Automatic annotation (TrEMBL):
It holds the Pfam family dnstrm_HI1420. InterPro entries: Cro/C1-type_HTH (IPR001387), HI1420 (IPR014057), Lambda_DNA-bd_dom_sf (IPR010982). This is Putative addiction module antidote protein. SUPFAM superfamilies: lambda repressor-like DNA-binding domains.
Length: 97
């Protein structure tokens, strides 16, 4: 019998988590739900209870915000990113012509 693949089981280090989020951002084609779900995967890997506590959210609110079914506020995303030990970085974007 096989078990469903869960990426959260493979995100063990901060470097792996950052690389996963970066890859998801690149592959998202601007889909905020895709990126939000990736943050949810990382939060599950770190432990939702601890991430919720560190972000100042209830565990239920965190699950709801990162489900991909809702659009969390940017303040929530920033709090979750901080709780995960991740940060945003801006780099120039060059459009392909």
């Amino acid at each position: 019998m096989t078990t469903p693949y869960d990426v959260a089981d493979h995100l063990r280090t901060p470097q792996e988590m950052a690389a996963y989020l970066e890859a998801c951002i690149e592959e998202s084609n601007g889909d905020p739900a895709f990126i939000t779900k990736a943050l949810g995967d990382i939060a599950r890997a770190k432990g939702m209870t601890q991430v919720a506590k560190d972000a100042g959210l209830s565990r239920e609110s965190l699950y709801k915000a990162l489900s991909g079914d809702h659009s969390p506020g940017f303040d929530t995303i920033l709090r979750v990113m901080h709780a995960l030990g991740l940060s945003f970085h801006a780099v120039p974007s060059y459009k392909k012509v």
